[in-house]
Amino acid sequence: MLGLGFFNEEFMKKIVVLISGSGTNLQAILDACQNQFIHAEVCAVISNKPDAYGLERAKNAKIPTAVFERKSYPSNLAMDQTIGDFIESTAADLIVLAGYMKILTASFTQRFAGKILNIHPSLLPKFPGLDTYQRALDAGETEHGVTVHFVNEEMDGGAVVLQAKVPIFPEDNVGDIEKRVRVQELQIYPLVVKWFVDGRLKEIDGKAYLDGNLLPASGYASE
Ligand code: GAR
Fold first, then answer.
1. Which among 18, 13, 14, 186 has a CA at the least distance from the CA of 102?
2. Ligand 1 binding pocket mutation candidate from 101, 132, 188 (most atoms within 8 A of CB)
3. For residue 67, how many C-alpha atoms fall within 13 Å in the half-sphere facing its CB?
4. Is the pTM here over 0.85, yes or no?
5. How much is the pLDDT for 151?
6. Which residues are catalytic, by number?
7. How far is the CA of 120 from the centre of ligand 1 (A)?
């Protein structure tokens, strides 16, 4: 149609973001869409916690929100089925987990295989799960970091796309390390989402490819 810009909404890819908490990663992605670093729109924000501050961020950005609480469903499977149906109804191209602190069922991850990204505050495969900062300190690590990866049925599992490392100094406490990691999170997640939206990043048979090149196990440019 004449007069339509290439990045007209009609052609824009759609992203659904799942959250459970403060939503700083959500905000970074909203901002990156707003300033057209990412050429896509966040079409819905989903939370499993009705009081997640990220829902306020979505409302401020005039993005539709939906809350699905575990107590409303007989099983994890039933909950994920409902969330999946909702996501399908939005025709989203990409599902972004941004601090969604509930393990997704295999039926959900398989239903949307190759379309789900997660961010996790460790250098996976080290420290999947909770309390990664404390565990890195306890293990005497001298570096920690953050990973963006495709999602499979394992907790914090799936092909790694990009990692950012931060140092751990001898006098550090958990807060020091978290602060350093969070700065990196807000840099790398919008970048990976942009790669996906631009069609540069794909997952095929459980492996991540950027521009057709297989990414190494620790993701792109890990050093
Ligand atoms: C982030 O640090 C993210 O890496 C982590 O939750 C936090 C959410 O913060 N995710 C996980 O631990 C996933 N296993 P946010 O709500 O401010 O974006």
1. 18
2. 101
3. 15
4. yes
5. 98
6. 120
7. 6
